[in-house]
């Protein structure tokens, strides 16, 4: 059932919400926008309350801005746990990955889950290693799916009245291709996803280059989800 109202005027997160056009240009997986956006949730200890806000690049990347703001405003107590969820328009670069690891090592009570809309310069070996280092440090990294897009639309976007269910439906294939490449990164495989942009007509092209190591190592259900391979059939 679709709500006839937008976010309530009494919603404490209203002033921290982004506009629908911002959400679209930042989180569309087909767009290669330079600037990055971060939507985040923070939950302390056993409390049911969730703090939500957003941030964008300044002279620093959004990840560094978050860490500086978070550590300057909060006093940590080792006995209190803190769960943080990020929804990033771009995955962390090498430098940001190292900053995140340092932050987590200094605050062992913090757990971090990261959802990303796109992979930042994913063929760069340092960026790839940075993401692996985060995973090895206990950070969960996943590509955003329709479920995360809908969650962000409802909780972070100042959508118009009656538009709660009208969040942007991006092609699932783009999400699956990025998810496939993320698997390659985590498994230390060569890149399989090639991305090019034609600026004249604003088109983004995705091309796959799968090698034997990809077919041998990537779980079959991941490959099957892309439609790149067909399930084997045994005839009797």
Automatic annotation (TrEMBL):
<dbReference type="InterPro" id="IPR016193">
    <property type="entry name" value="Cytidine_deaminase-like"/>
</dbReference>
<dbReference type="GO" id="GO:0004126">
    <property type="term" value="F:cytidine deaminase activity"/>
</dbReference>
<comment type="similarity">
    <text>Belongs to the cytidine and deoxycytidylate deaminase family.</text>
</comment>
<dbReference type="GO" id="GO:2000623">
    <property type="term" value="P:negative regulation of nuclear-transcribed mRNA catabolic process, nonsense-mediated decay"/>
</dbReference>
<feature type="domain" description="CMP/dCMP-type deaminase">
    <location>
        <begin position="10"/>
        <end position="134"/>
    </location>
</feature>
<dbReference type="GO" id="GO:0005737">
    <property type="term" value="C:cytoplasm"/>
</dbReference>
<dbReference type="GO" id="GO:0003723">
    <property type="term" value="F:RNA binding"/>
</dbReference>
<keyword id="KW-0963">Cytoplasm</keyword>
<keyword id="KW-0539">Nucleus</keyword>
<dbReference type="InterPro" id="IPR016192">
    <property type="entry name" value="APOBEC/CMP_deaminase_Zn-bd"/>
</dbReference>
<dbReference type="GO" id="GO:0006397">
    <property type="term" value="P:mRNA processing"/>
</dbReference>
<dbReference type="GO" id="GO:0034383">
    <property type="term" value="P:low-density lipoprotein particle clearance"/>
</dbReference>
<keyword id="KW-0862">Zinc</keyword>
<dbReference type="InterPro" id="IPR041547">
    <property type="entry name" value="APOBEC1"/>
</dbReference>
<protein>
    <recommendedName>
        <fullName>C-&gt;U-editing enzyme APOBEC-1</fullName>
        <ecNumber>3.5.4.36</ecNumber>
    </recommendedName>
</protein>
<dbReference type="InterPro" id="IPR002125">
    <property type="entry name" value="CMP_dCMP_dom"/>
</dbReference>
<dbReference type="GO" id="GO:0016556">
    <property type="term" value="P:mRNA modification"/>
</dbReference>
<dbReference type="GO" id="GO:0016554">
    <property type="term" value="P:cytidine to uridine editing"/>
</dbReference>
<dbReference type="InterPro" id="IPR050610">
    <property type="entry name" value="APOBEC_Cyt_Deaminase"/>
</dbReference>
<keyword id="KW-0378">Hydrolase</keyword>
<dbReference type="GO" id="GO:0030895">
    <property type="term" value="C:apolipoprotein B mRNA editing enzyme complex"/>
</dbReference>
<dbReference type="Pfam" id="PF18774">
    <property type="entry name" value="APOBEC4_like"/>
</dbReference>
<keyword id="KW-0479">Metal-binding</keyword>
<keyword id="KW-0507">mRNA processing</keyword>
<comment type="subunit">
    <text>Homodimer. Interacts with A1CF; form an mRNA editing complex. Interacts with RBM47; form an mRNA editing complex. Found in a complex with CELF2/CUGBP2 and A1CF. Interacts with HNRPAB. Interacts with SYNCRIP.</text>
</comment>
<dbReference type="GO" id="GO:0008270">
    <property type="term" value="F:zinc ion binding"/>
</dbReference>
<comment type="function">
    <text>Cytidine deaminase catalyzing the cytidine to uridine postranscriptional editing of a variety of mRNAs. Form complexes with cofactors that confer differential editing activity and selectivity. Responsible for the postranscriptional editing of a CAA codon for Gln to a UAA codon for stop in the apolipoprotein B mRNA. Also involved in CGA (Arg) to UGA (Stop) editing in the NF1 mRNA. May also play a role in the epigenetic regulation of gene expression by participating in DNA demethylation.</text>
</comment>
